């Protein structure tokens, strides 16, 4: 069946489809299906970059959503948001103060629409100075292990002062340098004090923790939690540290950008964090952050069995790489409507 409401509707193959006059009437009524098996149509307006649209709205997701009565409709950023829809859910990942104001105004005038997620909550995790505060404040520790954050230092200006600031803070080398604004995944690894002045503020310096070259990407979609293994930066031995100097640049922390699911890993390195620990962490951070769509990059300190660190939080991550994301995400949207 083909449906459109005057906006760009994503069809089975990601194309804009045109419908017949009778089907337009069904759309206006918010119903889909035959008269004998009609279901309420859930209309999800989305405002995503073209890259995000391509990676997220894959044909399999769109087809499954359509079968479940969920329709994705592109939001036209050149038109007032209130003139579009009506939407049941607004899904977005755009940046900028103008878009934030538009969305906040829309939330105030359309309280019945679920906005994923509030702009002010998203802004917190875009700033690495505050990103991990809630994890640190949580101070999670139970029989399954402990979860903390690496020691870190914020450098806003003057690279020549970085060495003194690091010494004063008592941070140990090597240090991971990340842009203060978390919209870039690039990072650097600094091996010696003299090289620190080559870095470009504003940035965050995190102590590097050996973790066996594997990180765990924990995807959160509402109450659903899914974890996968990814290759990461290799461990740095004391001998290597004593013989190395300079700053090494990487495109992102999972520098190999490859799944480690099928790799022959040492069980001490590859064993997934305990499920109860992850579920508790996700539950607490959903509440504290006010977000429903995010992921955590978690590492286990090498040589320990249960000491974990959250090194990054990402809003609306690459769900297209999450196993079974189509079913998880569509179930989440339907449950969201039931809660409303």
TrEMBL record:
Locate the residues binding ATP.
128, 178, 206-217, 232
**Domain of life from the UniProt record:** Eukaryota
Name any cofactors this protein relies on.
Mg(2+)
Q: Which GO terms describe its biological process?
A: inositol trisphosphate metabolic process
Q: Which InterPro entries match?
A: Inositol_tetrakis-P_1-kinase, InsP(3)kin_ATP-grasp, ITPK1_N
Instruction: Tell me where in this chain the Inositol-tetrakisphosphate 1-kinase N-terminal domain is found.
Output: 43-122
Provide the binding site for 1D-myo-inositol 1,3,4-trisphosphate.
52, 93, 185, 217, 314, 318
Q: Which family does it belong to?
A: Belongs to the ITPK1 family.
Its protein name is Inositol-tetrakisphosphate 1-kinase
**Organism this protein belongs to:** Nicotiana tabacum (Common tobacco)
């Amino acid at each position: 069946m083909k449906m459109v409401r005057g906006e760009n509707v994503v069809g089975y193959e990601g194309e804009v489809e045109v419908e017949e006059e009778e089907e337009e009437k069904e759309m206006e009524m918010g119903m889909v299906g035959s008269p004998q098996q009609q279901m309420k149509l859930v209309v999800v307006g989305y405002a995503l970059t073209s890259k995000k649209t391509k990676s997220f709205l894959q044909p399999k997701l769109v087809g499954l959503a359509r079968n479940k009565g969920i329709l994705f409709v592109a939001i036209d950023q050149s038109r007032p948001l209130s003139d579009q829809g009506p939407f049941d859910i607004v899904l977005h990942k755009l940046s900028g103060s103008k878009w934030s104001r538009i969305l906040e105004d829309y939330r105030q005038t359309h309280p019945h629409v679920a906005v994923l997620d509030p702009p002010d909550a998203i802004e917190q995790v875009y700033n690495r100075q505050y990103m991990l505060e809630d994890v640190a404040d949580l101070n999670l520790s139970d029989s399954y292990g402990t979860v903390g954050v690496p020691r870190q230092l914020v450098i806003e200006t003057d690279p020549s002062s970085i060495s003194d600031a690091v010494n004063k803070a008592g941070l140990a080398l090597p240090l991971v340098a990340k842009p203060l604004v978390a919209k870039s995944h690039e990072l650097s690894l600094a091996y010696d004090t003299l090289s620190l002045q080559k870095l470009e503020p504003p940035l965050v310096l995190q102590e590097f923790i050996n973790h066996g070259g594997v990180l765990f990407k924990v995807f959160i979609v509402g109450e659903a939690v899914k974890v996968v293994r990814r290759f990461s930066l290799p461990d740095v031995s004391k001998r290597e540290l004593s013989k190395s100097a300079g700053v090494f640049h990487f495109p992102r922390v999972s520098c190999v950008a490859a799944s480690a699911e099928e790799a022959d890993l040492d069980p001490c390195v590859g064993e997934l964090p305990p499920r109860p620990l992850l579920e508790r962490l996700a539950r607490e951070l959903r509440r504290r952050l006010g977000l429903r769509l995010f992921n955590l990059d978690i590492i286990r300190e090498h040589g320990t069995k249960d000491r974990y660190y959250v090194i990054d939080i990402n809003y609306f991550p690459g769900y297209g790489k999450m196993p079974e994301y189509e079913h998880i995400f569509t179930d989440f949207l339907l449950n969201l409507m039931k809660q409303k």
